[in-house]
Amino acid sequence: MTLSSSLVEVRTITCNRPRSNFDQQKIEQAANLIVAAEGIINPIIVSRTGINSFQVIDGHFEYYAAARARELNLEIGEAIAAYIVEEKNETIIKDQVAIFRQPLPPQDRQLNTDNLETRLTNIESRIENRLNELKSEYTQKNKELEQKIDSLKSKLPEKIEPLTTFNEANLIELVSKLKLVLRSDKKANDIAPKIIAARPFKSSTEVLENVRGLGDKTMLRIIDSWLYS
Known about the structure:
Mean pLDDT: 80
Shape: rod-shaped
Structural class: alpha/beta
Low-confidence stretches: none
Strand content: 5-15%
CATH class of the largest domain: Alpha Beta
Order of helices and strands: EEHEEHEHHHHHHH
Oligomer: single chain
Largest sheet: 5 strands, mixed
Number of helices: 9
CATH superfamily of the largest domain: Conserved hypothetical protein from pyrococcus furiosus pfu- 392566-001, ParB domain
Strand order of the largest sheet: 1-5-3-4-2
Radius of gyration: 43 Å
Number of strands: 5
């Protein structure tokens, strides 16, 4: 006897077990998985009841999941993989199904449960170890990043506020900085001594009020230039 699976249209299949016998939530879940995978991994077994009609022998749950998948997506759920059993072989196949589908003995069920618990424990342990590795890697990379930032900061020139320049720069420094803004050697040489003479200043406003030759616009240009240079 040669037994091979075929694609059978779901609409041509009937089932003698009511759908209410099965968990509807699990049927819905299985149907969504069939649609997502674009097929079912567990072919059902059907007998031929007509030229193009079949009845489920085994795989009743799979059939209802496939029927629901057809409702969700007609194109993907149109057909289901099935072993088609002809009338002359039906009794033999049913006997085979009865043997292969019988419940496991209690000791085997316990063994399966123990194996499952062991596997779950191993998986949890592996996940925990991997999380610890990721945490360690993150901590190390974060530390390296902070060190790079500190290194870059140390290479940056210290920023000097304009008011500090007005109060502390010597004559040569003041003339040099003013030349860059005013673009006039004469004006820079004229204003720099006046700034030194009027020191100290508590604010930029005091500089503007006490140094003759500085207008509002000129003062703003100086401050902008010294802030961002």
